[in-house]
């Protein structure tokens, strides 16, 4: 048992069932610039990145000015779609409560903006569950390890104290770059096969299996 037990969660596609909103907002942003609507598969490839990096990859060849306009249009569209509370995946609320009950510290590392995450946390009443958060508009984009490194520093921990849970290859690569263990979830943006290529502890397909995997890691 290490000095601390910390679980760092991605948000979209891991805790929140919000990928449909991301797909919709990306489509509306593209339409605003007269660009082709990106496919669901293409959007899933950039989920987890900060918004500027995601848009630049989805629309190669557009200039910085167009990327900035796309970013603004995406934000406007997402806020409209996000007027209804973001749904959590089945079993996630109960999982977070159970982890808190056994003293596991939790954090969030997300490509969302700080304002977007704050809105989601307010909608789900989960703000008090997380000891620290880092967002895409205040750190280098995944898969750079800055988010994880800053979270560990803020929580007085070392890489051996933490496991990162995410649904994208960007999450898995960030965990590897930061030297922390990883657990993949296959119900979000990426398949189990793609996540497994990064050698996480395990890839799971629902909240029950995720809870079991985290418990095994905590009690290792």
Explain how this protein is built.
The chain has 220 residues and is an alpha/beta fold. It contains ten helices and six strands. The protein has helices spanning 19-32, 40-46, 51-58, 64-81, 92-101, 114-124, 146-154, 169-178, 192-196, 207-218; strands spanning 6-9, 105-109, 132-134, 162-166, 181-185, 202-204. Strand 2 (105-109), helix 6 (114-124) and strand 3 (132-134) form a beta-alpha-beta unit. The radius of gyration is 17 Å and the shape is globular.
Kindly state the number of beta strands: 6
Strand order of the largest sheet: 3-2-1-4-5-6
CATH class of the largest domain: Alpha Beta
* CATH superfamily annotation of the largest domain: HAD superfamily/HAD-like
Using only CA atoms, what is the Rg?
A: 17 Å
User: What are the segments in which pLDDT stays under 50 over at least 5 consecutive residues?
Assistant: none
Whole-number total of structural domains = 2
Strand-helix topology:
Layout: E1 6-9, H1 19-32, H2 40-46, H3 51-58, H4 64-81, H5 92-101, E2 105-109, H6 114-124, E3 132-134, H7 146-154, E4 162-166, H8 169-178, E5 181-185, H9 192-196, E6 202-204, H10 207-218
Parallel strand pairs: 1-2, 1-4, 2-3, 4-5, 5-6
Helix pairs in contact: 1-4, 3-4
Gist?
With 220 residues, the protein is an alpha/beta fold.
Question: What characteristics describe this protein?
Answer:
single chain, 220 residues, Rossmann fold, DNA polymerase, domain 1, 2 domains, globular
């Amino acid at each position: 048992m290490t000095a601390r037990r910390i679980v760092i969660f991605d948000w979209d596609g891991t805790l929140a069932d919000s990928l449909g909103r991301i797909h919709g907002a990306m489509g509306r942003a593209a339409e605003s610039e007269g660009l082709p609507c990106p496919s669901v598969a293409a959007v899933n490839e950039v989920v987890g990145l900060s918004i500027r990096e995601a848009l630049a990859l989805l629309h190669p060849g557009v200039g910085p000015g167009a990327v900035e306009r796309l970013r603004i249009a995406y934000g406007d569209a997402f806020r409209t779609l996000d007027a209804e509370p973001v749904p959590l995946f089945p079993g996630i609320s109960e999982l977070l409560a159970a982890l808190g009950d056994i003293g596991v510290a939790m954090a969030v590392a997300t490509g969302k903006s700080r304002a977007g995450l704050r809105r989601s946390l307010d909608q789900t009443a989960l703000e008090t569950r997380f000891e620290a958060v880092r967002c895409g508009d205040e750190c280098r984009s995944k898969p750079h390890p800055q988010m994880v490194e800053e979270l560990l520093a803020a929580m007085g921990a070392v890489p051996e104290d933490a496991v990162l849970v995410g649904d994208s290859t960007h999450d898995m690569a960030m965990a590897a770059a930061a030297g922390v263990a990883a657990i993949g979830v296959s119900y979000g943006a990426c398949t189990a096969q793609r996540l497994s290529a990064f050698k996480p502890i395990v890839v799971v397909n629902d909240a029950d299996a995720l809870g079991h995997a985290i418990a095994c890691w905590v009690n290792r």
